[in-house]
Amino acid sequence: MAQVTVTINDRDYEIACDDGQENHLIKLSQFVDKRLRELTDVIGQVGDARLLVMASLLLADELSEVYTELDSAQNQQPTSSKSTSNFGLNSDDLDLFTSRIEKIVENLQQSKRKFS
């Protein structure tokens, strides 16, 4: 397992990830950091915990919308285990994507417990 230091909201976090996923994790952390900064610009600094919860909820809302769009697109196509969505992803790609998201969430939860 690799270790990556990511910076979110001007704080460094050590995150474990699979070997070869370091750059991907860094890009994800930059995305989260950007969202936190946008949120901070609107509501100000309300404390790290509350800010991270609010950002997590906003990101979860966006992800929920994407899942809804994917479900809608898949329901409009013939059913096949290897069908491809309008986004160019087949079911195997979606499973891999979901697995990666779950690993990232797990790593973030572990980091949160470590820093709490």
Describe the structure.
This protein has 116 residues and is α+β, with helices and mostly antiparallel strands. It has one domain. The protein is 65% helix and 12% strand. It has helices at residues 22-43, 48-75, 91-115, and strands at residues 2-8, 11-17. The chain has a two-stranded antiparallel sheet with strand order 1-2. The relative contact order is 0.11. Residues 70-90 are annotated as: Disordered. It is found in: Cytoplasm. It comes from marine metagenome.
Average pLDDT over all residues: 82
Which radius of gyration do the C-alpha atoms yield?
16 Å
Which outline best applies?
A: globular
Number of helices: 3
Report the β-strand fraction as a percent range: 5-15%
Q: Uncertain segments of ≥5 residues (pLDDT<50)?
A: none
Count up the domains.
1
CA distance, first residue to last residue: 23 Å
Query: Which class best fits the helix and strand makeup?
Result: alpha+beta
Count the strands?
2
How can the largest sheet be summarized? 2 strands, antiparallel
Q: Please trace the helix and strand order, writing H or E for each element.
A: EEHHH
Adjacency order of strands in the biggest sheet: 1-2
What is the helical fraction, as a range of percent?
55-70%
GO biological process, one term: septin ring assembly
Keywords: Cell cycle, Cell division, Cytoplasm, Septation
InterPro entries: Cell_div_ZapA-like (IPR007838), Cell_div_ZapA-like_sf (IPR036192), Cell_div_ZapA_N (IPR042233)
GO cellular component, one term: cytosol
